[in-house]
Amino acid sequence: MEVYESYIMGMLSNLGRDGQLPLDRIHNYLKMFVTGSDQNYDKSPQQLRAFLQKLCREEKLECGADGMYKLVQK
Length: 74
Known about the structure:
74 residues, alpha+beta
């Protein structure tokens, strides 16, 4: 799943300083944009959720009470 980290970080940074997305939108974007590259995206929403939670524990992402993910502001 680490190969998808750059896609996720780029997608959230392109939304601007307060950019945030829910799990289902991140999942759909990965299905659209990673298709056709060397790494095909074939993960389930549950697998993506676990990976996003890992990024939150590593303090790369934050997840609000509303389930919206955003980049940690440093």
